[in-house]
Every structure is written in structure tokens, then in C-alpha cells.
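PROTEIN DESIGN WORKSHEET
SECTION A - STRUCTURE
LENGTH: 269
C-ALPHA CELLS:
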């Protein structure tokens, strides 16, 4: 469910050999290795467990770093992913993302939710463990909400194809897909590629769209259309993510999180 595209793929040992520029009075770059290792260290103390080794990519001669970590899941058809980025050329802030689907590539685009974002300022290294911890708490909450969303989609039965036709027109109006992809979505609905999506539910219909999204070559298309898809399917199924979040997350946990909600990521060079 996650994708990392970068000019050069490396492992943690190779990442440690990437040099970090000298700090200035107001700019204090964080070593790429320090960021990734800090996330891994915090994961060890959390409820999350890695499903595989992290994917790490570099671009711009090592100045920019991107990483993705897939987490173990009790579900067979999706998993939670954590991604992040860092820059030594002052082109963007250090950030961490989380979601059921994460897309990051080296042209500075990402599809997910901000879990942590900070500039390379004074004392950033001192603040880094706390920032990552808060980010993982936010990701954990989003994961609970998304688990309930997906189950809600699985329970939402689509009775006949007339509903599908209506949804397709609405999805076109809401810029989820263009007219040329309607036949492909319909084909996937009528002949599911995977056994898990044979039930006539909104979750199966969701998969028809995500299969089509794989054909988009522009990451920005994947970004905006995926966000739009989640939004309209929440509306169609009357899934209230605000209510679910309030119900699932204890009040004392919410009080410990940063006051401002994390916006959807839509970053471009």
C-alpha cells in the first residue's frame, strides 16, 4: 500500500555515511540518519511493529532523504505506513507522515497526513524525540479511525449497479477520476481482480478506484484524487471521522496532542 520513489536507494549503514552541512546561526540541519534512527527508536517503545526493513531513498546528491516504514497489521488487505523526509539544502522542512496509504517521491510530493513537521531551527535535535513521539501518537489515532472507516466501508453494501453508475458520475464531478477512467473502474467492479474484493461493498468499490490510480504517472494526481476519494466515500457512507475520533480517543490523550489538527499533505516543488 506504500510507494517510495527516489534517485538512489540506501540502507541505514549507507545513510550514516552521508555528510551533514555545517550549522549556521539560525539553521541547524538534522543528519538524515539521526531522523530515521530516531523514528525507529521511538517505534521500539510504541505499540507499532515494523513489517519489513525501512525503505530509504536519496536525491539531489544526498541532500534530500525520504523514508517509508510499513507496519505489521492484523488486516490482510491494508497496512499502516509511516513516511518521512529531510533536507540539507533548505528546500523543505523535516516531516513525518502516516496513513493507510502513503506515497512519497523525490520531487517533494507526498500523500498522507502530517504527523510531525518542523524547520531546522535551534535546538531541533533536542526537540526531535518529543516531536516524533507526538507524531506517532497522532498516527496511532489516525490508524484507529481508519480501521473503523475501512470496516464501515466493508459493511456498507451496494445493492445494485444503478448505485454504482450514480457514484461514478459523482466521483467525476468531485475530481476523483476523469471520464476516460469510468470504463476501467466499471470493469474492475464487474470482474474483481482479487477475491477479497468480490463482496459488493463500498470497500470493494474503493479498490476499483485505487487500481485505476496506479495508472497516474504524476504523483500530484495520485495525491489529490486519493484525498478526494476518501472524502466522497465518507459522505456516501455517512462516515463521520470527527465523531469516530472523539469516541475512540480518550480525552486525556487528545489533551496531550498539539492543539492544531494536522492538515492533509499536498506538497510540490
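SECTION B - SEQUENCE
RESIDUE ASSIGNMENT:
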Amino acid at each position: 500500500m506504500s510507494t517510495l520513489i527516489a534517485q538512489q536507494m540506501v540502507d541505514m549503514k549507507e545513510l550514516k555515511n552521508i555528510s551533514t552541512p555545517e550549522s549556521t546561526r539560525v539553521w541547524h540541519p538534522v543528519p538524515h540518519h539521526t531522523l530515521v534512527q530516531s523514528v525507529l527508536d521511538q517505534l521500539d517503545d510504541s505499540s507499532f511493529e515494523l513489517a519489513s526493513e525501512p525503505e530509504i531513498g536519496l536525491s539531489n546528491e544526498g541532500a534530500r532523504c525520504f523514508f517509508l516504514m510499513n507496519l505489521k497489521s492484523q488486516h490482510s488487505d491494508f497496512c499502516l505506513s509511516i513516511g518521512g523526509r529531510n533536507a540539507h539544502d533548505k528546500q523543505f522542512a523535516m516531516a513525518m507522515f502516516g496513513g493507510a496509504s502513503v506515497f512519497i517521491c523525490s520531487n517533494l510530493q507526498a500523500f498522507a497526513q502530517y504527523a510531525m513537521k518542523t524547520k531546522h531551527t535551534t535546538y531541533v535535535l533536542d526537540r526531535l524525540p518529543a516531536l516524533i513521539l507526538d507524531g506517532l501518537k497522532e498516527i496511532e489515532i489516525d490508524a484507529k479511525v481508519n480501521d473503523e472507516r475501512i470496516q464501515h466501508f466493508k459493511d456498507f453494501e451496494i445493492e445494485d449497479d444503478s448505485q454504482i453508475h450514480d457514484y461514478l458520475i459523482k466521483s467525476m464531478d468531485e475530481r476523483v477520476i476523469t471520464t476516460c477512467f469510468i470504463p476501467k473502474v466499471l470493469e474492475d467492479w464487474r470482474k474483481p481482480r482479487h477475491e477479497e474484493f468480490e463482496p459488493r461493498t463500498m470497500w470493494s468499490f474503493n479498490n476499483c478506484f485505487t487500481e485505476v490510480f496506479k495508472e497516474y504517472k504524476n504523483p500530484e494526481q495520485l495525491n489529490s484524487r486519493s484525498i478526494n476519494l476518501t472524502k466522497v466515500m465518507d459522505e456516501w457512507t455517512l462516515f463521520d471521522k470527527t465523531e469516530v475520533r472523539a469516541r475512540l480517543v480518550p480525552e486525556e490523550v487528545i489533551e496531550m496532542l498539539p492543539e492544531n489538527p494536522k492538515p492533509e499533505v499536498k506538497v510540490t516543488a
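SECTION C - NOTES
The CA atoms of residues 160 and 200 lie 9 Å apart.
Residues 124-155 form the longest helix (32 residues).
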